[in-house]
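Researcher: Let's run the pair from yesterday's discussion. Sequence first, then tokens, for each.
Model: Starting with the first of the pair.
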Amino acid sequence: MSDEVDEIKEQDAADDWGDALNEQANAESAAADDWGAALNEQADAEAQDVATADMQPLQADEVISHDEVNLDVILEIPVTLSMEIGRTEISIRNLLQLNQGSVIELDRLAGEPMDVMVNGTLVAHGEVVVVNEKFGIRLTDIISPQERVKKLR
């Protein structure tokens, strides 16, 4: 008798799981339908907002000269400027042993110029200066655009 009761309980539990899975599948299907409808509605709204522009074909003799290039569109783009004193590689074991007062040896000699990086790309070398109690850098050498392109390869 106990086996029959256990079997009935297992059957009820399986039915409950089946019902729950069906309910979840129905909910997911309804959500997918809602997303599809929302995306279609958004696409329709965007299509109504788009205006067509009259496009003139580009003539071969209409070459833009360097004097006509307008750099104003990029002048306000922010970039990250950083100075690098030097680098070194250490193991994680040694890194975890560092504490206040530890000295890390870098790959540069004292007095060597620092690297000036823009978005991680070397653009110049310079020396550290102090102006009004703030650190600064005096540029001593600018890397030519040709040299910068070579380093990108």
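Model: Moving on to the second of the pair.
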Amino acid sequence: MMTRRTVLVLVLLLASGLFCLSGAIAASGQNGAAIPAEDYALYDQVVRSKFLTSVTRLVLIERMTRFRLAPDQEAAPTVDSFREGGYFGDELPLELIRGFILLNRQPSRLAGRFHFGVGYRFVTGDTIEEPEVSLARPLIVSLAGPVQAPPVLERLAFSRVARNLRNDQALLYVEILRPEGTGAGFLFWFVRRGRDWTILDTEVVWTIQAPEEEKELEEPEEAPLLAP
């Protein structure tokens, strides 16, 4: 038989547990749900195949994921906005669109799980974060000439990766924004064959180009940024 003191202790423990649980829920709502480890393989594939060049030594990445499809948008995308955009010739499955919208209702925090072959740093606002231990890369210096700062790819931002119920299709938004205000946003449509994910198609959602670059980009010799 429980005494009053025992009941009081149980009540206090229950209240403490509920307080911790509410704090965890609040933190989860602020930083978004944890991003699955397998999603980083798709991030890596996009970076390697579409953005890196032979001279890239450092990539800046937005710490928080994107939940909109253009810099001037303040709200998350909707089914109607996807349809109005006509992305991929309106061939995107509705299930994939709805999954993307549901998953990207709020930003999520990216972790140091990228493995695309060069060093990277996370950026929050105007601040470049200190490198995490797992991100450290040795700086290779050539003795044949003067030491120069490594070329930097500024700056990539990712959405969450949406998948269909069968987990054989995926959708990802990636954008690059440079300090001078130019950049572009892309949707990547993935398909899985066996265990391997490949990029089925790429859609340019928006571009901002400097006036002098517009003609150069019409017939680029090497443009990994705009490669399909």
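Researcher: Give me one sentence on the second I can quote.
Model: The longest strand covers residues 196-208.
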